[in-house]
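Before a colleague's protein record goes any further, I have to sign it off. I want your independent view on whether this chain really folds as the tokens say. The record follows directly below this note.
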Amino acid sequence: MKSNRVSVLATAAMLSFGLTACGVIGSQADTSPVVIGADLELTGANASVGKVYQNALELEVAQINAAGGAGGRPLQLVIRDNHSDPATATSDMATLTAEPDVAAIITGSCGGCFAGVAETLNSKKIPTISLAAADLSSLTKAQTTGTGSYLFKINPNAADDAAMLIAQVETSHDVDQYAVVATNDPYGAALAEDLRVDSKAADVTVNSRKTQAVPVATERVANDANESTLRQAVHEALAQSPKALVVSLP
């Protein structure tokens, strides 16, 4: 959870700085609060992560305000619970974006929740930072990314995680086969695919011979999978006798 908390702290601080730089803060005489909306998973499958995000955001906002706020104006955090449900997230965003005082929005760990509202947020030109693990490109349409986009993400992408993991495989001995246990969501799908692509180019040594690392099993589980389901997924993956096991779970 430490990386999640650091990401949220960086998000709040970046929003504070970014709003000032963009002139949203207004004149020094303006002491009205800068409202930041946050749509988080406080209940449902991703609640364990969403509550960490909530605590970290509230802490950072309190610290920024204690230091004088953003450009002399206090930050005000408005948090809504999307219940880890894309339909609820869409309703939440309709409410938040209708509020004229909302200067920016932070979305939580639910990639599907963000994907359903990304185009609307970008069209309304509301600076939005996603805390979902999935790559931004996998959650948005082409026209909502790149130059001119109002959508941002600061967590590492699945491609970055895959590159790091395969680099470790390259430095290991005799690891030419691996298995994956990952979540059944956009991040899990992207990680499994990025691992497959990177492993084809990996320089692995087995018995003094150069070869490739290949996936022998990929097991997908729900974010809220119970212990029995997780054990079964790991058992199925290990049944293929991999030399290494990659486990990516909340």
